[in-house]
């Protein structure tokens, strides 16, 4: 197990700064995801850590040693690509043995290590299969075994599930997470899929235009996003604009139209600040009567409803602004029609204030 420290890491392609002054420490044994939209610099960051891309400035330290100038094979890193990258003319055994043969291991060591790697990825007995005889999930397991057999200190995974269909992706994400926690290997995982990042990671760095917008545990990123970009990128959110009218002990009184709400805020907001309240749709309720006590809300009207199978999505007008409510499709789900007057409510502790910019 090893730690990885990125220090002011920057990569410029001509005038484009693909990665711009990124600093973060990834702890030993951690499952750390780089998450963000296409083009935000995730893969470039990973490729610099692996040594496939030169660093423009800054440093990459593995266990405190600067490896920025070392070639990939001298870094002790395993890299799994999105398109499996297993050799089609070799069977499973030979694919996994390939890296060991390069390193001149004896035949008996190779047999022992390949057998152990196959067991790790649940592929024992499939040694003689060719690529064309395997499902996408099996091929990705072989790709992982091929990397794990070399006993890397760090595992880098670049969108390893993106070529798989949805059901297999769901299954594989739990499988990879279990494998990683059993092995305890420090893992950096690149994805644009927030569901994958939230499910698998110990911590997530959300990237935007070459920089890190926020680093945190999944719950922190989802429930206390550090800015509007993160709030909108991770999950769906309603953003209510208003003004903070009082602050005490980190709790704010927040005025939206004629309604007075209460919420916690990110640091730095003060009385008189224009702000945005972030609400997650699954925390919003539609009711016949007004909620009080620990609840925010007030009168609202229904703009539309959409049947989504497991959930019903209702768009509400609250003080001239839109709130999305997503209710589980249960027998007690609210039955409402467009134009209907209702009350909307959400817990004060599911209300989070951000600056407007
Ligand atoms: P995706 O999810 O689409 O792979 P990403 O977040 O991994 O996106 P990168 O591939 O790291 O993003 O690219 C970041 C930026 O750097 C983009 O603007 C991209 O066009 C640019 N870029 C990446 N590689 C090169 C290259 N070899 N030459 C020029 N520009 C590049």
How is this structure best described in words?
It is a single chain. This protein is an alpha+beta fold and 357 residues long. The protein has 2 domains: 4-232, P-loop containing nucleotide triphosphate hydrolases (Rossmann fold, 3-Layer(aba) Sandwich); 236-355, OB fold (Dihydrolipoamide Acetyltransferase, E2P). Helices cover 24% and strands 38% of the residues. The chain has 8 helices and 20 strands. Helix 2 (92-102) runs parallel beside helix 4 (136-148). The radius of gyration is 25 Å and the shape is elongated. Adenosine-5'-triphosphate is lined by residues 13, 16, 18, 36, 38-44, 192. The site of adenosine-5'-triphosphate (ATP) has 12 residues, from strand 2 and helix 1.
Summarize the model shown.
The chain is of the alpha+beta class. The chain is 24% helix and 38% strand. Bound molecules: adenosine-5'-triphosphate.
End-to-end separation: 40 Å
Strand order of the largest sheet: 6-7-8-3-9-10
| Largest sheet: number of strands, sense, barrel closure | 6 strands, mixed
Number of helices: 8
Chain-averaged pLDDT: 92
Taking pLDDT < 50 over at least 5 consecutive residues as the criterion, the unreliable ranges are: none
Output the CATH homologous superfamily of the largest domain: P-loop containing nucleotide triphosphate hydrolases
For the record, the CATH class of the largest domain is Alpha Beta
Under CATH, the topology of the largest domain can be stated as Rossmann fold
CA-atom Rg in angstroms: 25 Å
Domain module tally = 2
Q: Give the distinct bound molecules.
A: adenosine-5'-triphosphate
User: Helix- and strand-based class?
Assistant: alpha+beta
């Amino acid at each position: 197990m090893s730690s990885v420290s990125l220090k002011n890491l920057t990569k410029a392609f001509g005038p484009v700064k693909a990665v711009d002054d990124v600093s973060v420490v990834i702890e030993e044994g951690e499952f750390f995801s780089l998450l963000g939209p296409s083009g935000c610099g995730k893969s470039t960051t990973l490729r610099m850590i692996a040594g496939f891309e030169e660093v423009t400035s800054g440093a990459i330290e593995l266990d405190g040693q600067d490896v920025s100038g070392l070639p990939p094979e001298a870094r002790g890193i395993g890299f799994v690509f999105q398109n499996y990258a297993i050799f089609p003319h070799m069977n499973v055994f030979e694919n996994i043995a390939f890296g060991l043969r390069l390193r001149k291991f004896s035949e008996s060591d190779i047999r022992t290590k390949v057998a152990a790697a196959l067991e790790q990825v649940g592929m024992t007995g499939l040694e003689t299969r060719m690529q064309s005889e395997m499902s996408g999930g099996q091929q990705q397991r072989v790709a992982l075994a091929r990397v794990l057999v070399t006993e890397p200190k760090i595992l880098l995974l670049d969108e390893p599930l993106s070529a798989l269909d949805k059901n297999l992706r769901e299954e594989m994400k739990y499988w990879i997470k279990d494998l990683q926690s059993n092995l305890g290997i420090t893992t950096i995982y690149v994805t644009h899929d927030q569901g994958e990042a939230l499910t698998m990671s110990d911590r997530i760095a959300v990237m935007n235009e070459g920089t890190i917008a926020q680093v945190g545990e999944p719950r922190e990123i989802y429930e206390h996003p550090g800015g509007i970009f993160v709030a909108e990128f991770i999950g769906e959110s309603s953003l209510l604009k208003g003004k903070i009218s009082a602050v005490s002990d980190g709790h704010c009184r927040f005025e939206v139209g004629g309604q007075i709400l209460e919420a916690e805020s990110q640091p730095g907001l003060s009385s008189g600040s224009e702000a945005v309240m972030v609400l997650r749709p699954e925390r919003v309720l539609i009711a016949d009567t007004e909620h009080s006590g620990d609840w925010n809300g007030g009168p609202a009207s229904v703009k539309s409803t959409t049947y989504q199978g497991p959930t019903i999505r209702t768009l509400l007008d609250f003080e001239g602004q839109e709130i999305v409510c997503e209710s589980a499709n249960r027998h007690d789900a609210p039955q409402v029609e467009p134009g209907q007057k209702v009350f909307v409510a959400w817990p004060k502790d599911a209300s989070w204030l951000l600056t407007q910019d």
